[in-house]
Input
Amino acid sequence: QVQLMESGGGLVNVGESLRLSCTVSGFTADYRAIGWFRQRSGRARAGVACLSVSDGSTDYSDSVKGRFIISRDSAKETVYLQMNNLQLPDPAVYYCAISRSENYYYLLSQYYHFGGQGTQVTVSS
Output
């Protein structure tokens, strides 16, 4: 069974950066992608970024495109989300997830499996 554990959240000021990490264990060959989602208080979980396991291609939501970068270190079984130029709309609990679906690039929760507790990101003005 796949296990996911997020870390790296914290409090930063507007314009600063954070790097989130997601350790994945039990990953199997039938998984197609790894993604990052976030959930703001009172809102549904929303997709932020995803990375294809097969070719390393990436997709991002419009709200983070150009600021966030998803990457993977296969040897460490870790996926990262580099978040640059953090803004006031970015605070949320961030989750990583994996997908077996060919529709993973839609960045919709229904296509992903979640397992971690998430990590809190807070941005101060």
Observations:
- The radius of gyration is 13 Å.
- DSSP finds no helices and eleven strands in the chain.
- The first strand starts at residue 3 and ends at 7.
- The mean pLDDT is 95.
